[in-house]
Amino acid sequence: MTVNTPLCFRGKNILAPMVRVGTLPMRLLALDYGADIVYCEELIDIKMMQCKRVVNEILETVDFVAPNERVVFRTCERERHRVIFQMGSADAGRALAVAKLVESDVAGIDINMGCPKEYSTKGGMGAALLSDPDKIESILTTLVKGICKPVTCKIRILPSADFCIACPLSEQQVGFCLCLCHPVGVAFFGDCYLVVEDTVDLVKRIEKTGIAAIAVHGSGGSHDFIKEYGDIETFQKATAASSVMIARAAMWNPSIFRKEGPFPLRKVMQDYIKYAVRYDNHYTNTKYCLCQMLREQLETAQGKKLHVAQSTQEICEAFEMSEFYEETTALFEAKKTSLETKKQDEDDQMEDPNVIKMAVRFDKREYPPQITPKMYLLEWCRKEKHPQPVYETVQRPLDRLFCSVVTVADQKYRSALWDKSKKLAEQAAAIVCLRTLGVPEGKLCEGENHLINKRKREDQEHLNNGDHGKDLAEPSHKKASFAEESSDMNAPKMQW
Fold it and tell me: Catalytic amino acids?
């Protein structure tokens, strides 16, 4: 598949992928200060495969949201042509599935083959891949053939490499270098060379997969060698790399990318906080990144205020940005209200006039244990010889609330209110149907509950018949619950 993108990896200054640091606020700040390309933190394929893509109309972002509603990856239009999605994977199929999920929202896909941390290597990912060239080739070839965006990878120099002769750059100062698949027998660093035959053999094999670039993590060292923008150019010339990735120096002050020189740290931190508030970054991540910037200043009055902060609002207070926080959150609330009103107007215009609606919600406290309106509706349909109820449930992306429509005897019913879960929405739809039909719904206030009595009779019959098998091992209410759930096993699920 042909790569169709203007992204080029030659002559670039790049924000390196860093765990807990490479989230949206840091990436945008690095771009503002002059970075050409930014990498997100490594995200594991299995976790990403569980996510759904959600357009966040309030923040104007694209969110990849886990089943527990946690945002795993958030991006926006500002960085769409500059952000590389770094993935941790040890399986070609999973890697391709995730790449296809995010492909339209990022500029490229990177496979992490350099992380030595246990959380990555224990799953065969990160640096563990370097010992399995066949798997590397499989993953990269699958991605190159399967997506339209460029594919890259980040590796480490293999342990067999040796330094020879003296040079201006020590072993610890050989940091992130990006090469455009141009392997040679040795890598030169000033007046020395690093013998890397095994690494070059691996790189040659990687090159044949058709990837766009390889990032080589020597031993790290930007914190020692790169203090300002001019040092980046010096580093690039010394390593003869096509581009340079910067990690810790950028983590401590992302304005390292400014040609005019770095900004004072306080301005950088305030700029970071503005992005964190603007894009609703979780306060623990914001706090972590700010602590990395403060470093030795953590024991100052400013650092102590940050240390005790337990919310984004408190972080803003610590940096005298309360007014900005209040103005921004007020704008969000106004936008949310406007979008909800607009959405409701659209719903009203598109509403099926044949659907019967009531403003009701299901409150389980009003019903006996294990008895629900859905169960009553199913019983009624069986008694009247109607097909079992069919539930169609949709989720609204704006607030992630649910609405369900139940069809009974060719008539549709739904609640006019949206609920926080699919189950509650379906129960509310069942209530609307039952009340419209004038059928009891099983509430405690309705007096004697025929469904409970029926279950008791069935249990007694089992006992009288000497049936001590599986049915007695499971209470009758569990059988009823299964019957209720089976009524909508084949019901379609839709997303708005």
Answer: 115
